[in-house]
Structures are given as structure tokens and as C-alpha cells.
């Protein structure tokens, strides 16, 4: 009888200790959560100060590279309007510049100005925030071929023309011609 | 409580404790790491938002002709649309707490503006969902706005809860599995221990032959072997004690018998003398019996005294010539030997021995006397003495009637006589060989018997008593 009581006591003690060992982690995590939820710490941060100066202005070459490479560090912010152009002016400028690329045959097949679907964007280099520019980017269709275009607001020059649909007939050949003519146009 | 149960109990507790501690540390570290990663990610995000604001302000040409606050409002309006499109959860306030832009959805908490070049963050719970909010002050030339960025981090805490559930199930399963395996292992290991326990109980109940059968060479196996050795030794000692007790009992019985026999004769003849007037011949016979039996009693007491003296004798070892020792002993016995015309053949090496002269003489005289009693008229006794390394070997052999082989182990017991009537007739009391055996034991030696019926008897004395010449000088 004495032994049985002692055994029951032992078993109960084991169950109690096991229970404590099992419950302690839950209690610990509750305490940890309480601590996490209550705190409002401050951490140091580098503040960004943008001072626009001529020295930090991107040249045309750099602007084109920024568009072409499509760097991961480049952020795009959609704007309501540009600094230099309104949407009407931007379309007009865009039309004018597209006409300078002979292969597009804008004067024969090109759309009317309002069919040029473009919007302004601010491009910011995340690593060097001072390196930023406003572009007009969008699309248009010439003789059933969709194009993506980018216009630089500062210079009013086209920075990029690309055929949007890679599946069209003679895509590579056409793209090559555009590249060549764009290169000539760029250094005019 | 059984040992195996104790092991089971301790294992389960130990495994639970170890798993609980390890699991808690691991889950806690995972949570901290996830939160740290989230803080870093959010810090980058809010810095990116701050940068967007700053760049947009710097690039906006309206700053040339509009107030900064007006331009800021327009910039915020632009960013509000951009950030909403990107799915960011944010809130922009001015210093007074007026909300300038709000993404909606996530709840925000009000936090004070952090210090310069610092951001503040907090983690909070809203309707069972966890959020992290970061607050950063964005300064312009004249204005300062407070940017709040909020992220739902419920997944981190959900992961923690899932890990906890898994951890609990694993802890329970592994703990029980380990404990059961260890319990079985313990049963196997402690098999010898249980055998040992059973054996102890059997021995406690008087089974001195019970032993543990173990092939194990671990500590428990060694313990079992030691226990078996101890049991062997104990059994031997107990048997010896029993044998000693039996001998003591027999000794007392024999002693009583040896005393009663002559006393009966003495009392009987004395009573006869007291009650009757006997004739001269009968009178002589009666008094002769009384005298003879009295002498026997005296002899018995002398021998008993010898036995007691020998047991507690103070040894006086000296270096003796073996030849002289034997010749002196033969000389003492010579008249008795002559009575039976016994021839003594000597074959003695010239050697010196270390022994107690008187005690060793007693041994030799006893042996020669026994030989004398054993041989018939014109019998022969052969005495040899030689050294075997450090040992001395003296052999006394006769061509007498011999001793039955089965009697040999008992002949050194006190009062034991092979042929009781004949021995008594010869005047023996059965103590001679017991005395000899004790003397040899005192010399660290032994006494050996070789005999058989009608084959004569050969008694050998053997002890480490040989002395070389240098030692003798």
C-alpha cells in the first residue's frame, strides 16, 4: 500500500514536471510577444537630401543607357504631367521626332497625334538619387505594328523605339533597321 | 520503484527538457531573425519612399513659382497614386497630425515623430493580425512631413505558431520513443542485475549453490563475477565451519566416550572392591584394571595437553642435522621396536633443517609408533630424508596392515582410529596424528598419507626447512 502510494506520487510528479516542461515554451513565447508588441525603438537611418545641380545632370548618353539597361536600381514614379510638356505638347514633340526615323514611314502610315499613348514618369537611380530624369513613355501603332517609345523631356529627343510584339514578321530585321536609324538620329 | 522505471522516468524528463530548451531557443531565434529581416526590408522600403518624395520635390519645376507646401501637396498627390498602385500601405501626416495621404486598408497607430536621422518602428496586433509600422520624418526646406509605412507581418507569427505546434508533437513523440527505447535497453542491460537480485534472495533463503549466470564484461558483469567469487568463498567457509563444528562435536563425543570407558571399568572394579572381600588373584586383577585404566586416562590427559600445547606452542626453530634428529627419535623408540624385532631401514641425506626440535621429534616418534603398531613381528620400517630445493621431505613407511583408502581423509581427526579395539589394546587414544598434523601446520608444511589395506603405509612430511651450509654456519 505504502509502495503503491509512493509510485502514484512518483507518476504524478513526472506528469506535473512534463507538463511544466511543455508549458514553459508557450509562456516564454507569450512573454516574448508581449515584449515585442510593446516596444517602440528608434534605429538610425540615412536621410536623402537632393540638391539638383548642373554637375549632377545626366547627359543624353547616360539617359539613354538608363533606359536601355533597365537597371534594377532604377525606380519609376508616374507623374500627372511633365515639367516642360503638357500631354498635348509631349504628343506633338513625339510625333515630330518619330518623323525623323525614315523606316517608320510616319508621314505615310503614322497615326494621328492623339493616338500616341504616352504618360510622364520620373526615373530615379536608387543608388544615386540625384541621377533622375523625366521621360514620356508609352506606345503607338504604325501599320498594325505596335511600338514602345521613350521621349526625354529635357532634350525632347527619343531615347528608345522598340517593336512591342516579338512575334511579328521580320521582327529582328526591322528592329535592327530601327536601331541603326535611331543611332543616326541620336547623334544628329 | 524499479530501476528500469526510474531510467524511463529520468530519460523522458531529460529528453523533454532538452527538446523543450532546444526548440524554444530555435523558434525564438527564428522569430527574432524573421522580425529583423522584416525590419531591414521595411527600412529599405520607407527610405525608398522618402527618396521618391525628395527626388520628386527636387525635380518638380513648380517649385520655381509655387510655395513649397503647395508643391509638396502635389507631390504627395502624385506619390499617393503611385504607391497605391504598388500596393504599399502608408500614411503621410504633417507635424500637427493632419493626415495628408492614406493608403487605406491597414490600421495605423499614432507614433511620435522620431529624432533626426532616425526612424521609429513598432509591432502591434489588431484583430488577431500582426502589423509592423515604421515612422520617418521627411524634412524639406520649410516643411516636414511624417511618413508612416505599415506591413502585415502575421505570417511571421503564424509560422512561429506552426513551428510551436510541430515542436510540441515532435517533442512528445521523440520523448516517448526515446524513453521506451531506453526502457527496453535498460531491461536488457540490467538483466544481470535482476539475476543478481534473484540470486541474493535465493542465498538469503539458504541456497548456497545459487550463482549469477552472466557473460557480460561490463561493470555489472564484473559485479556478478565478484559476487559469484564471494559466494564461492562464503560457501567454502560455511562448509568448513560446518565441518569444524561437526569435528568439534565428534571430538567432544569421542572425548566423552574415551573418558567414560576407562571410568566405567575403574568405577566397576572399585565398587567390586568396596562391596566384596576378593581373593588375592581377583583382587590383583581388579586393582590392575583400575591402575591400567587410570594410566590410560593419564595418557589421554597428557595427549590432550599436548594437543592444546601444540596449538598454542611458541616455536623455537633451530638448525638441526636431520640425521641426528632421526637417530634421536629412533633411539627413543628403540626398546619398543626391539620388542617386535622390527628392522629400521635408514636412507638419510646429510642435510640440515630448520625446525622446532622437540615438536619435530614428537612427530617422528608418533609416526614410528604408529608404524610399529601397524607391522607384525619382524616387520620393517623405512625412513628416508632428503632435500627437494628449499623443501625437506621425510618419509616413514612400513609394511604393516595398511589403512583402507576411504579412511585416509579422517585419520588426522582427533580420537579417530581405524581399528578401535586394536588401537585401544595397543594403548592408543587416537590423538597422535592430530598432534602431528598441527605441528606440521606450525612449520608451514603438510603431512601426506599413502596407504591401502595390506599394502603398508607411507607417511610423508614436507616443509620448507632445508638449510644450506652457509646458513647453517
TrEMBL record, chain A:
Highest taxon in the source lineage: Bacteria
Transmembrane parts of this sequence: 12-29
Keyword tags: Membrane, Transmembrane, Transmembrane helix
Identification of the protein by name: Uncharacterized protein
TrEMBL record, chain B:
Cellular localisation: Cell membrane
One MF term in the entry's GO annotations: ATP binding
GO cellular component, one term: plasma membrane
Ranges that cross the membrane: 12-31, 166-189
Membrane topology: Multi-pass membrane protein
Limits of the HAMP domain: 187-239
The organism of origin for this protein: Anaerocolumna xylanovorans DSM 12503
Name the UniProt record assigns to this protein: histidine kinase
Lineage: Bacteria, Bacillati, Bacillota, Clostridia, Lachnospirales
Pfam families according to UniProt: HAMP, HATPase_c, HisKA
Amino acid at each position: 500500500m505504502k509502495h503503491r502510494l509512493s509510485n502514484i506520487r512518483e507518476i504524478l510528479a513526472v506528469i506535473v514536471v512534463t507538463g511544466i516542461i511543455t508549458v514553459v515554451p508557450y509562456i516564454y513565447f507569450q512573454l516574448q510577444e508581449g515584449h515585442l508588441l510593446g516596444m517602440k525603438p528608434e534605429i538610425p537611418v540615412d536621410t536623402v537630401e537632393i540638391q539638383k545641380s548642373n554637375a549632377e545632370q545626366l547627359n543624353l548618353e547616360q539617359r539613354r543607357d538608363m533606359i536601355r539597361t533597365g537597371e534594377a536600381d532604377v525606380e519609376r514614379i508616374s507623374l500627372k504631367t511633365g515639367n516642360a510638356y503638357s500631354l498635348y505638347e509631349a504628343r506633338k514633340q513625339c510625333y515630330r521626332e518619330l518623323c525623323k526615323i525614315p523606316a517608320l514611314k510616319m508621314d505615310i502610315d503614322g497615326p494621328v497625334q492623339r493616338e500616341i499613348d504616352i504618360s510622364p514618369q520620373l526615373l530615379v537611380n536608387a543608388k544615386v538619387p540625384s541621377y533622375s530624369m523625366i521621360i514620356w513613355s508609352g506606345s503607338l501603332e504604325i501599320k498594325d505594328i505596335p511600338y514602345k517609345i521613350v521621349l526625354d523631356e529635357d532634350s525632347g529627343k527619343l531615347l528608345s523605339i522598340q517593336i512591342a510584339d516579338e512575334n511579328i514578321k521580320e521582327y529582328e530585321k526591322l528592329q535592327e533597321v530601327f536601331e541603326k536609324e535611331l543611332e543616326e538620329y541620336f547623334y544628329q | 520503484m524499479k530501476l528500469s522505471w526510474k531510467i524511463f522516468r529520468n530519460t523522458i524528463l531529460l529528453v523533454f527538457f532538452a527538446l523543450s530548451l532546444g526548440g524554444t531557443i530555435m523558434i525564438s531565434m527564428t522569430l527574432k531573425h524573421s522580425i529583423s529581416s522584416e525590419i531591414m526590408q521595411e527600412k529599405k522600403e520607407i527610405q525608398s519612399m522618402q527618396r521618391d518624395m525628395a527626388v520628386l520635390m527636387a525635380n518638380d519645376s513648380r517649385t520655381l513659382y509655387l510655395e513649397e507646401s503647395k508643391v509638396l501637396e502635389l507631390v504627395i498627390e502624385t506619390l499617393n497614386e503611385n504607391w497605391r498602385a504598388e500596393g504599399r500601405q502608408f500614411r503621410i501626416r504633417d507635424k500637427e497630425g493632419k493626415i495628408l495621404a492614406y493608403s487605406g486598408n491597414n490600421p495605423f497607430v499614432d507614433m511620435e515623430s522620431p529624432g533626426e536621422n532616425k526612424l521609429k518602428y513598432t509591432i502591434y496586433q489588431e484583430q488577431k493580425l500582426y502589423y509592423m509600422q515604421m515612422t520617418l520624418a521627411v524634412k524639406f526646406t520649410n516643411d516636414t512631413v511624417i511618413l508612416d509605412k505599415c506591413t502585415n507581418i502575421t505570417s511571421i507569427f503564424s509560422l512561429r505558431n506552426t513551428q510551436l505546434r510541430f515542436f510540441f508533437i515532435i517533442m512528445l513523440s521523440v520523448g516517448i520513443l526515446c524513453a521506451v527505447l531506453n526502457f527496453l535497453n535498460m531491461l536488457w542491460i540490467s538483466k544481470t542485475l535482476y539475476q543478481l537480485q534473484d540470486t541474493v534472495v535465493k542465498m538469503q533463503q539458504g541456497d548456497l549453490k545459487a550463482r549469477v549466470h552472466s557473460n557480460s564484461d561490463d561493470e555489472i558483469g564484473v559485479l556478478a563475477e565478484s559476487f559469484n567469487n564471494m559466494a564461492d568463498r562464503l560457501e567454502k567457509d560455511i562448509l568448513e565451519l560446518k565441518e569444524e563444528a561437526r569435528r568439534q562435536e565428534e571430538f567432544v563425543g569421542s572425548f566423552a566416550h574415551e573418558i567414560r570407558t576407562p571410568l566405567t571399568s575403574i568405577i566397576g572394579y572399585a565398587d567390586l572392591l568396596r562391596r566384596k572381600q576378593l581373593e588375592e588373584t581377583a583382587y590383583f586383577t581388579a586393582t590392575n584394571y583400575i591402575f591400567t585404566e587410570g594410566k590410560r586416562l593419564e595418557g589421554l590427559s597428557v595427549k590432550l595437553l599436548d594437543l592444546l600445547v601444540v596449538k598454542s606452542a611458541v616455536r623455537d626453530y633451530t638448525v638441526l642435522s636431520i640425521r641426528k634428529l632421526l637417530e634421536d627419535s629412533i633411539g627413543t623408540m628403540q626398546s619398543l621396536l626391539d620388542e617386535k624385532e622390527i628392522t629400521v631401514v635408514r636412507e638419510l641425506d646429510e642435510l640440515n633443517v630448520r625446525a622446532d626440535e622437540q615438536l619435530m621429534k614428537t612427530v617422528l616418534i608418533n609416526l614410528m609408533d604408529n608404524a610399529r603398531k601397524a607391522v607384525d613381528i619382524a616387520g620393517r620400517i623405512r625412513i628416508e630424508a632428503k632435500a627437494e630445493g628449499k623443501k625437506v621431505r621425510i618419509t616413514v613407511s612400513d609394511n604393516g596392515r595398511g589403512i583402507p583408502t576411504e579412511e585416509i581423509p579422517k585419520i588426522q581427526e582427533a580420537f579417530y582410529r581405524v581399528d578401535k579395539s586394536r588401537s585401544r589394546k595397543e594403548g592408543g587414544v587416537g590423538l597422535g596424528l592430530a598432534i602431528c598434523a598441527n605441528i606440521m601446520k606450525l612449520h608451514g608444511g603438510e603431512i601426506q598419507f599413502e596407504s591401502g589395506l595390506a599394502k603398508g603405509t607411507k607417511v610423508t612430511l614436507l616443509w620448507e626447512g632445508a638449510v644450506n651450509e652457509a646458513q647453517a654456519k
